[in-house]
Design a protein that fits this description.
Layout (H helix, E strand, L loop, with lengths): L2 H7 L5 H22 L16 H8 L3 H11 L5 E5 L2 E4 L2 H8 L9 E2 L19 H11 L5 H28 L5 H18 L5 H4 L4 H16 L8 H7 L3 H30 L11 H7 L11 H32 L1 H14 L12 H4 L3 H13 L9 E2 L5 E3 L2 E3 L4 E3 L2 H4 L24 H6 L14 H18 E5 L8 E3 L3 E3 L5 E5 L6
Parallel strand pairs: 2-7
Antiparallel strand pairs: 1-2, 3-4, 4-7, 5-6, 8-11, 9-10
Amino acid sequence: MTLSAYVSFTPSLGLGLVLLVFVVHHISIIIYRLFFSPLAKIPGPWLTRISNVPEANALKKNQRTQWVTSLFSQTPGAVAVRTGPTSVSFNHPDAVKAIYGHGNAGEGFGKSSWYDAFSTTGESLFSTRSKKRHAMKRRMVAHSFSTQSLLSFEPFIDQTLETFVAKMDHFADTAEPFDIYFWFELFTMDLMGELALGKSFGVLEAGKPARYSTLVEQSQRFANHSGLLPFGKHNVQVMSWIPIPSIQKLYKARLEYLDYAKVALEKRFQEHRKHNLTSGNPRQDIMQRFIEARDLETGRQMGFDELRAETSSLMVAGASTGSVTMNWMIYYLCKNSDIQSRILTELEAMFPDNLAGEEPLSFTTLNKLSLLEHVELECLRLHPPIGYAMPRDTPPQGAIIAGFYIPAGVAVGVPAATIGRNDAVFTCPNEWNPDRWSGKFDDLSAMKNCFLGFGYGSRQCIGRNAATTFIIKTIATLLLRYEIRLEDPDLILATKEFTILKPDRRFNVILHHRDVSPP
């Protein structure tokens, strides 16, 4: 209860007495949280029982995921840890189903107020907290990510990939070491520009990032900070008032980012009205599907502000996560030449007339290459783009989660980076081994239950298949066309957290054109 509330409820009391009651009330809350709350028995730093400061400090240092993981390591075998006064993270398979599951599992676990900070000009599929509105939105756009739609998007992927490969050819011709992650970021930014806004940003041709990509990152960081505040939908406004230069810089980036998205989307609408294809038909990209989408029950279409919010989510989900996943795939394939050789053998058998990767590789054929998809899954297990827990609020009656009673209104979740290395589920959990996804020596069902690289349950990333399509096509093209090796064969990468988990340092690779001439 706030001080102003006390004043309004106790008009006959003197101000001094009101202040005393206010202080005693809050001291009582602190004592309750420290010693008597049902959460008091859950391990974690004592300060997390009364304050979000430790988590906010970890976020500021780009170490939020590492901080949560360290809390589990400090209490070996811990199923749950306290991350804040009303927030708990779990590391147990039962918690995944209980919190995020379909049907009765996860019933009543609504998205926490943290998501409000990610609602920009309106609720997106990602940020909406209403299960009803989420279900409606998902119905509206599900067709946008159907198999038929993915096939219609493939020409845009191939077009952008052609530009990317031209740049890679230059590095192969010169054998010059270069930062491939940097170029993955440019590739995914141009690709999502094509798919979400109808036009690439031209960053591949320019060889340098657009300001938009920086704004995306900074805007997401601002939202993450805002989400830790206790004011719900007012978090963003309150955060914007904080007179700290670093916070003000992030807030200004958020405003510029939203304005950029508005201008880009307005231009996309103008092209939509002109039917900018020679056939006279609208361009069939993701945004066109969103523009045309209708709720089958009400006939409602998304308005401009809602489309703008969805555009912002698409750019983050597609560009940022796709580039970092491809980066880890190349890193681990360079470290594991035997896996790379096995994939290459399968690719050569699939495309005997295209051994140099000179023609676009059909995803309809590539999706039969299970080993490469297992490489993607294994990289996402070890290095999920979002490593911390996606929070859900416990229902009014509270809930039993992995043996713990959690009262109502507590933000609970399972960090993807922690559960992905749970040694009760994954044999040698810190070892990169894509063959584990074949189910030969681990329980495949249990692993899938604890794999949160794309989320889980009804809120699982709706663009998962689209992301896998362009990731698999890109990595397969690189493997078929080039010999790839690390400039430093002894390189060991760790992670550093921004909005997403990224490598802790830049690194170079060296490309050579593969010799595909007959012996």
